[in-house]
Write a structure and sequence with these properties.
The protein has 137 residues and is α+β, with helices and mostly antiparallel strands. The chain has one domain. It contains 3 helices and 3 strands. The N and C termini lie far apart (69 Å).
Length: 137
């Protein structure tokens, strides 16, 4: 009877570790989605002063793939704490999909905190991705 009790307790602890790790990966994914949303908005709204005050009218207010990538890289350089806790964070895509629309995709690797032998297959981390699109008005 003692062996059965110990077995059930061990199984319950392992189940708790797996559920806690899955919850952690889910929350980290939500955090990456929020950051990607923010970066897409930042890129869609990023206009330099000389472009804003230029003489070309509304035609000058265009988002380009270069301006999107530049805005994303600048934001991440100015706010390094946004990617804290992730391993191997990268910009997968930062492009303009329209004259005023920016699309940003990011990828990161999250390492679950509870890495028991049950989670050994994911001991190097779980890859999460997020994609967001924003349009400037």
């Amino acid at each position: 009877m003692l062996v059965l009790t110990i077995g059930v307790v061990v199984l319950a602890v392992l189940l708790i570790l797996v559920v806690a790790s899955a919850a952690q990966v889910h929350l980290e994914h939500k955090k990456l989605v929020a950051l990607t949303d923010l970066l897409a908005l930042e890129a869609a709204d990023a206009i330099t002063d000389d472009v804003y005050y230029g003489e070309e009218g509304d035609a000058r207010l265009r988002v380009t793939s270069a301006s999107v990538r530049s805005a994303v890289e600048d934001y991440l350089a100015q706010h390094p704490g946004e990617t804290k806790g992730w391993r191997r964070v990268g910009i997968q895509e930062a492009t303009a999909t329209g004259p005023r629309t920016a699309r940003v995709s990011m990828v990161a690797r999250v390492r679950p905190a509870a890495t028991a032998w049950v989670l050994a297959a994911w001991s190097d981390g779980v890859v999460i991705t997020a994609t967001s699109t924003a349009t400037a008005d």
